[in-house]
Design brief:
Chain lengths: 586, 219
């Protein structure tokens, strides 16, 4: 193994979180910074050759190469975990930009009480309302702590939308259930396609409060505070699972990379697969010394660094801490140890609607549509309901590629192939729409991650093992939300509707979302969290962890805005405090 | 080295000379039956004839328009199986292999190539059966993984970009009114409510005016 010349900062992972930190520290300081990214480089010019449904949305060219490394899965501790051999329930990205390249760009904030979930729920409903084996907790920060950073994040990405709560004043047409905002969105809402307009009118007629989806696919040309410009969306429809061909969708490569590339103190090494975070001694706390990685030729390197920032995806952050023996692994039997605890995903279900008129669904953008949050968080009383929390409904014209969507048929069509199936498929292809729901997934003691005893990656390191299943809270919420969706579908004039699939056991073959949380969670006390509210490791003060792994439990909405706001807050703490006096920030 | 196999197709049966109009009334402009010899990458000629016949029963050519035969679905599948997908380049294929609950997805060892080779063996002589007999044979294997892949790949071959060998002349896209990778819908996205808006389909290579290398040609 070769020891490389030391650097000031090493960042593991070149996605949204890692590159945002690299940009912030790289422009605010003269520190030498190296970003290690396991995947390849990504060009920033014309992406139109990627507009191919088969290679990108079906064969998933942008996703993690599972032949090298995957995870194993089981529903309960009694089962033997098996590997996820093909992509399904979530889609981890790879390469510069990570999953931030292929994302859909929905950009909602979390509702304020998400950050104090345990206190707020106990305060309102008392302990008896909480599920028996829950492990929900407060974050150690409040919405007010994060608000300025949410606003900065929205400015950086040029988010399109309409405020519903400006400094406490409710505004019709925006999300009146959102937390207070210090500023309006930097760009106006996207255009509203047909099905979304039907949804808007139906929701309004029922007395609900539809509002434009906050979108990172910007509606008009925009220049951010860093001087980076992006054009407005042309509604080509190739967003989720694709790279935006014109850069209207904010991605790390078109929003952060242009700034990073101008900084001589920041470099990105691709094909660098980090296998361990190193530390000097064997026991106890102290400092970490850098990371060990394998380059694309198979050679191992030790990269010493004064400051190590772990910023890969949720599952890999957790796995790297476990493989490196940093911190105590979580034990579900005793609920002791913290690395791996509070694994949460997100309920993502949809009702399928069939219309008599054509819908022109090839036009659109993954975030051009309407959202309804009348049942988000605790905006409605749960006293007499069999579940806690809720979620939001969305309708948009998303990339409904014909390969993935031909043959989605109403229950009245029975055949699966042959002339009747073909005829029905031709008729319904452009008469089919969805009402989506993203619902909150609570944390439970039995949902966690550890290292698999059997299956290994190509280099011989154990795979991460997920133990995860739904509980009755999610099942009841999903049923409740499905009934609301059916009501809205009728009001939209759908001829037939398939309700949400019934949630039984967690299904790895069905795409949910790429919103996984937990494993290295933040908190105000070291006995129940891995990092402090500045995302600094409690035991190793020169190690910071960024990303979805630090979120104590899912909060229904898409997590990227919150992840980026947390990164900005940590960047401030590093630049203003830590770098002047290295040591614990909390 | 593999002996070279060809599939002989009549040009009239593959897109090419068939012009399919947007109102779903197909018309043959040129009826002369020119024969094409298409080199096969994975199938033998016998296998290709069987797969071609089976995909034509899944997505038939009938009153509702052209089908898998005209779209060249068998050529599409041949290329996919010959490429990295066919040999499971992107799947986690380390053992031990064990059966699990359905929520854990396909846990088998067999690659798509192996599943097709095995599945086709059981359809010997399929291409020479009468259509009703063919349907009966397919019904017998409906619940097999082979059939589910065959059906899935038929849809892919009908509707993926023509760079992959199927959807010849964008026949599949014309059938459903999908215009392909259109660069901008800015002026139309908030119009045409409730009415079909059907721009002429355009393929990826036409849009980009560049040669696009499909995934199946990678190693």
């Amino acid at each position: 193994m070769k020891t490389l010349p030391p650097v000031d900062v090493v960042i593991v992972g070149g996605g949204w979180a890692g590159l945002l930190m690299a940009k912030e520290l790289g422009s605010r300081t003269s520190l030498s910074i190296v970003v290690l990214e396991r995947g390849g480089p990504r060009k920033t010019e014309n992406y139109s050759t990627d507009m191919d449904e088969l290679d990108y949305a079906i064969r998933m060219h942008m996703m993690q190469d599972l032949s090298r490394e995957t995870v194993t899965f089981r529903h309960t501790e009694q089962q033997r975990a098996l590997p996820l051999r093909q992509h399904g329930c979530f889609l981890p990205g790879t390469g510069v930009g990570g999953a931030g390249e292929h994302w859909s760009g929905h950009f909602p904030r979390y509702v304020p009480d998400s950050f104090e979930l345990l206190s707020c729920t106990l305060g309102k409903y008392g302990p008896a309302k909480l599920p028996e084996d829950h492990s929900i907790q407060d974050w150690g920060i409040s919405y007010d702590d994060l608000e300025p950073h949410y606003t900065r994040t929205e400015m950086l990405l040029g988010i399109s939308g309409k405020a519903g709560n400006l400094l406490g004043k409710q505004i019709e047409g925006g999300n009146i259930f959102e937390g207070w905002r210090s500023a309006e969105y930097p760009t106006p809402p996207t255009k509203i396609p047909y099905v979304a307009a039907l949804f808007r009118d139906a929701a309004k007629s029922l007395g609900y409060h539809p509002y434009p989806i906050p979108a990172a696919t910007t509606s008009v040309g925009f220049t951010n505070p860093d001087g980076v410009s992006r054009p407005g969306c042309t509604y080509c429809g190739f967003c989720s699972l694709f790279v935006c061909m014109i850069g209207a969708k904010a991605q790390p490569t078109n929003t952060l990379l242009p700034v990073i590339q101008k900084r001589k103190n920041v470099s990105i090494r691709t094909g660098a697969r980090v296998r361990r975070i190193n530390r000097a001694g064997i026991n106890g706390s102290g400092n970490v010394t850098g990371v060990t990685y394998m380059d694309s030729s198979g050679e191992e390197h030790f990269q010493p660094a004064a400051l190590t920032i772990l910023a890969s995806w949720t599952l890999n952050n957790t796995r790297l801490l476990l493989l490196s023996g940093l911190g105590e692994p979580y034990d579900p039997a005793t609920a002791k140890g913290n690395v791996g605890r509070n694994l949460t995903h997100q309920i993502l279900s949809s009702a399928t609607l069939f219309f008599e008129r054509p819908l022109n669904r090839f036009m659109g953008s993954a975030a051009a549509g309407l959202r309804v949050s009348d049942w988000d968080g605790d905006t409605f009383d749960h006293t007499h309901l069999p579940f806690l929390r809720g979620g939001s409904f969305t309708v948009m014209h998303i990339t409904e590629g014909p390969v993935a969507n031909f043959g989605v048929l109403p229950p009245s069509v029975k055949s699966r192939w042959g002339p009747d199936w073909k005829k029905a498929g031709l008729y319904y292809y452009d008469r089919t729409a969805r009402i989506g729901f993203s619902g909150e997934h609570l944390a439970y003691k039995g949902n966690y991650m550890d290292l698999d005893p059997t299956y290994k990656d190509r280099l011989g390191d154990p795979l991460l093992r997920m133990t995860l299943d739904w509980r009755d809270n999610e099942r009841h919420m999903s049923k409740f939300a499905s009934e609301k969706a059916m009501e809205m579908a009728r009001a939209m004039g759908a001829k037939e509707t398939i309700p949400f699939p019934t949630l039984r056991n967690y299904d790895t073959t069905r795409y949910q979302s790429t919103h996984l949380q937990g494993g290295t969670i933040m908190g105000s006390l070291p006995d129940r969290s891995v990092v402090n509210p500045f995302l600094q490791h409690w035991q190793f003060p020169n190690l910071f962890v960024l990303g979805g792994s630090t979120i104590p439990q899912n909060a229904a909405a898409n997590p990227t805005p919150t992840i980026l706001a947390l990164v900005l807050r940590t960047a401030d703490a590093l630049a203003d405090r830590y770098l002047k006096h290295p040591g614990p920030l909390a | 080295m593999r002996r070279r196999h060809f599939l002989t197709l009549s040009a009239a049966s593959l897109g090419g000379v068939l012009v399919y109009s947007l109102d779903r009334k197909g018309s043959l402009l040129s009826a002369q039956d020119k024969r094409l010899r298409v080199p096969l990458r994975f199938f033998t000629e016998e296998e290709a004839l069987i797969v071609g016949a089976a995909t034509s029963r899944i997505f038939p050519t009938d009153q509702s328009g052209p089908g898998a035969r005209e779209a060249g679905v068998v050529i599409y599948i041949d290329r996919q199986l010959a490429g990295p997908y066919g040999r499971d380049r992107y799947r986690y294929t380390q053992g031990p292999f064990e059966d699990g609950p359905p929520e854990l997805g396909y846990q088998g060892k067999a690659t798509p190539r192996e599943i097709f080779r095995e599945g086709i063996k059981n359809l010997k002589g399929f291409d020479r059966l009468a259509p009703e007999e063919q349907d009966a044979r397919l019904q017998q294997i409906e619940s097999s993984r082979f059939f589910s892949l065959l059906r899935q790949h038929t849809i892919e071959g009908m509707f993926s970009d023509p760079i992959h060998g199927g959807n010849v002349d964008m026949i599949g896209w014309q059938l459903i009114g999908f215009p392909g990778p259109r660069m901008s819908n800015y002026d139309d996205i908030d119009k045409h409510f409730g009415e079909a808006f059907r721009p002429t389909p355009i393929s990826l290579e036409q849009v980009t005016r560049a040669i696009v290398r499909p995934g199946e040609d990678e190693q």
